[in-house]
Amino acid sequence: TFSRTDSTSASFQVDTITVGDIITQIRGRCNINAVGPNSLDNYIQLRILRAQVWCTVAETLLQPDLAVSFYELSGDNKVVRKQLRDLGTLNRPAKVGYQYPVTDSQDVLDNDNAANIVLQSTATSTGSVNTYRVKVLWRSGYQST
């Protein structure tokens, strides 16, 4: 599971999660180098199943307000699959989640798809804390160049 927490520094700041962000975190957390033994390329392939975003307002007494766009994972990646918005309360974070359809969750993504956008979130308030979780299936292996 990919997980990241970001704090917004401006109102209506757009944060983006890409396939490359997920691959970079897997490499870092599992200590997988880009080059394996005998100078073979070490690739990571993954499938994205679902994604969730939570938004809290840590330092202010404002209502958390979150809008998220979930993108198509295959092809040229310019199509928004779903746009969701939620308003939280002081006691409950704003939260959205999306399970990708079978056509997207069956696509195997790798470094060639690193620029593909998985989701974009916009929190209305400065100082909002966004937590992202993306459920992935992944594998790593070697391939000759």
What does this structure look like?
This protein is mostly beta strands. The chain is built from two helices and eight strands, in the order ββαββββαββ. It has helices at residues 19-30, 102-105, and strands at residues 2-7, 13-18, 41-57, 65-71, 80-87, 94-99, 117-123, 128-143. The longest helix has 12 residues, at 19-30. The protein is elongated. The two termini are 29 Å apart.
Layout: helices, strands, pairs:
Blueprint: E1 2-7, E2 13-18, H1 19-30, E3 41-57, E4 65-71, E5 80-87, E6 94-99, H2 102-105, E7 117-123, E8 128-143
Antiparallel strand pairs: 1-8, 2-7, 3-6, 3-8, 4-5, 4-7
Concise summary:
This protein is mainly beta. The protein contains two helices and eight strands; from the N terminus they run E-E-H-E-E-E-E-H-E-E. Strands 1-8-3-6 form a four-stranded antiparallel β-sheet, with helices on one face. Strands 2-7-4-5 form a four-stranded antiparallel β-sheet.
Tally of DSSP β-strands: 8
Q: Low-confidence runs (pLDDT<50, min 5 residues)? A: none
The main sheet orders its strands as: 1-8-3-6
Beta-strand residue fraction: over 45%
Anisotropy-based shape: elongated
The N- and C-terminal alpha carbons lie at a distance of 29 Å
Mean pLDDT: 88
Specify the structural class. Answer: mainly beta
User: How large is the count of helical segments?
Assistant: 2
Task: Characterize the main sheet.
Answer: 4 strands, antiparallel
- What is the CA-atom radius of gyration, in angstroms? 17 Å
